[in-house]
Amino acid sequence: MRVFLSASIRGGRKMLHMYIKMCSLLQQQGHEVLSWHVADPALDEAESLMTEQEIYEHDMKLLRKSECLIAEVSTPSIGVGYEVCSALQLGLPVLCLHSPQANVSAMILGNSDPGLVASEYANEQELQKIMITFLSGLEQVTQVQEEFFSNH
Ligand SMILES: O=c1[nH]c(=O)n([C@H]2C[C@H](O)[C@@H](COP(=O)(O)O)O2)cc1CO
Description:
- By secondary structure, the chain is of the alpha/beta class.
- Helix content is 50%, strand content 14%.
- It is built from 6 helices and 5 strands.
- Helix 1 links the parallel strand 1 (2-6) and strand 2 (32-33).
- Helix 1 crosses helix 6 (124-151).
- It is globular, with a radius of gyration of 15 Å.
- 26% of the residues are buried.
- The structure holds 5-hydroxymethyluridine-2'-deoxy-5'-monophosphate.
- 5-hydroxymethyluridine-2'-deoxy-5'-monophosphate (5HU) binds at residues 6-11, 38, 47, 55, 59, 77-80, 83.
């Protein structure tokens, strides 16, 4: 699937190690991570060559091409919150993941939008399991829809 990985940049990079793991787990499972740059340790150099408007437009273009959004929300980030909301408005399924210690916003944890799933992970294995379950559920829905449209 084409996945938009959303993760804090200016909100703080202390969970970067986790963004790198998420990106490589997704790629290992055969998914395309359109926003792989969020897990790039050298991101600052690349983004400093772009204007604020170019960054925004590039990201929104990637989001519109994506089939779902997976966000790491342990670190509060305006950009991640904006992308989660934009994805829901575009009708994309959203998975928000966070560590047990994280002080996650009620705008995520209290959100009853049917397109949004928020899960806590205790370790890398749990993180992997949650992402695989989420994505395989979406793949099954896509397959059923394709079969329906090819028969009608
Ligand atoms: O340089 C950037 N590049 C970029 O792609 N973003 C997008 C992707 C991230 O999922 C999200 C991070 O937002 P923030 O920088 O507010 O933490 O915004 C954000 C910035 C900087 O705000």
